[in-house]
Design a protein that fits this description.
35% helix, 20% strand
Length: 424
């Protein structure tokens, strides 16, 4: 295989990914080794942070296990030194994400910026180059083919490719950025409807009935609510695919959603740090795109965990994004690696992830009506100053919250009490 360059086209990537799958695990691992070594070399040459971190390491490194671990807190603290482009600074990035009108716009005229919620206690700002975005698009084609095949893709196109997706509207989250980019395209604008996560369920149903999407792309918790509406006859859409995101689903929920819509249901485990991390198969194993990702299940001391055993955390290396290299990054999730080949025949490594469940909060009104709200609708984690938050439902009528912030956030309390989301 030729040496990886930063200018792979979408067509080249799609062809190379097909060759990797056809060549089996050995071909995937070969690409992984070459790309990992190239990314480490690039980081050392262009990032002051990595140059210092790897100063005592050998000249060429193909084995991730020999390198030190990094974390979101560490990288955010060294943001300017971490970037391989000297124009990228934390001050410029913070100024950019303050403006919600810039969601989906190009940062410094050449990059994409996405933020994380800070579920680990440290909100993240991630700068993504065009190479990584192209890899993301190529892998999206890989997962669509795995989920619905050529016939399903044809049905999507025959339905006009109409897509409905849910987003965090006021944040620079990866989904909001993707939605903004799609809506800027004249070709896609009329084929996409973007629904904020705080949209009431009756309004969601009304808009989806009017739009009748061929592709439904909600957060997993919202997919559960919409499946219930479809079962009750209030929602009557006919999607080809329901592509869930951000949260895990129980096995019975996959079957219920698929039956409710008469559609294929796909889910993926990913992160802002690596949006193309994995996708699931019909046996509900998540296949890691190991030709572009290194994922290492480890224990609390960062020692490798054997296949079949649940890890304490997992280390991520993104082999596509050169402007902010993610190498042996503590992602914080607990995973287990399948010890044998997946029965679906996909040679990519298969994992199961613990946590990230699609919970739904259910409240009862004074009139006895039940109202379901996905926790994503609270959007607490995207409010400036909030470092960590928790929502706990203690009874059907109410829930309590805890959050740690740099200052008291009266606006948040007024908003929650007025909406009856939190008890007064």
């Amino acid at each position: 295989m030729s040496r990886v360059t930063p200018n792979e086209s979408l067509l080249w990537l799609v062809r190379d990914m097909r060759k990797a799958i056809k060549g089996g695990l050995a071909a995937v691992e070969q690409r992984q080794r070459v790309r990992f070594a190239d990314m480490v070399a690039h980081a050392r040459a262009n990032s002051p942070f990595y140059r210092q971190l790897y100063r005592d390491e050998p000249e060429r490194i193909e084995n991730a296990k020999s390198l030190p671990v990094t974390s979101k807190k560490q990288l955010m603290a060294r943001f300017d030194d971490w970037a391989t482009d000297r124009e990228v600074t934390i001050e410029k990035a913070r100024e950019f994400i303050k403006n919600s009108d810039l969601i989906g716009q190009r940062f410094l005229g050449k990059y994409t910026v996405a933020t994380t919620s800070g579920t680990t206690g440290t909100p993240g700002i991630f700068v993504i180059d065009d190479r990584a975005m192209t890899v993301t698009n190529a892998i999206a084609l890989r997962l669509f083919q795995a989920w619905i095949g050529v016939g399903g893709v044809s049905r999507l196109l025959l339905r006009g490719g109409r897509m409905a997706m849910t987003v965090m509207p006021s944040s620079h989250s990866a989904t909001a950025v993707a939605a903004a980019r799609l809506r800027k395209s004249k070709l896609a604008r009329k084929r996409i409807i973007v629904l904020p996560v705080h949209t009431s369920l009756p309004e969601l149903v009304t808009k989806l009935n009017e739009f009748d999407p061929a592709l439904l792309a909600p957060y997993a918790s919202i997919a559960k609510l919409l499946a219930t509406e479809q079962e009750a006859g209030r929602l009557h859409i006919n999607p080809v695919l329901v592509s869930c995101a951000a949260e895990g689903l129980a096995a019975n929920e996959y079957d219920r959603i698929a039956k409710a819509f008469g559609a294929k249901v796909g889910n993926s485990y990913a992160s802002t740090e690596c949006p193309f991390l994995s996708y699931d198969c019909e046996h509900r194993w998540l296949h890691v795109n190991a030709d572009w990702v290194v994922l290492e299940p480890v224990d609390a001391d960062y020692r490798p965990v054997p296949p079949g055993k649940q890890s304490h955390t997992v280390l991520l290396s993104n082999l596509a994004n050169r402007v902010q290299p993610i190498l042996r990054y503590d992602l914080g999730d607990s995973v287990s690696l399948r010890p044998d080949p997946c029965p679906c025949g996909n040679p990519l490594p298969a994992i199961r992830v613990q946590g990230r469940s699609a919970d739904v909060l259910v409240f009862s009104t004074e009139g006895g009506e039940r109202i379901s709200i996905p926790p994503l609708a609270f959007e607490i984690d995207h409010i400036a100053g909030v470092e960590l938050f928790q929502i706990v439902q203690r009874r059907k009528a109410a829930c309590s919250s805890r959050w740690r912030s740099q200052k008291r956030i009266q606006w948040l309390r007024r908003r929650c009490f007025r909406s009856h989301w939190l008890p007064s």
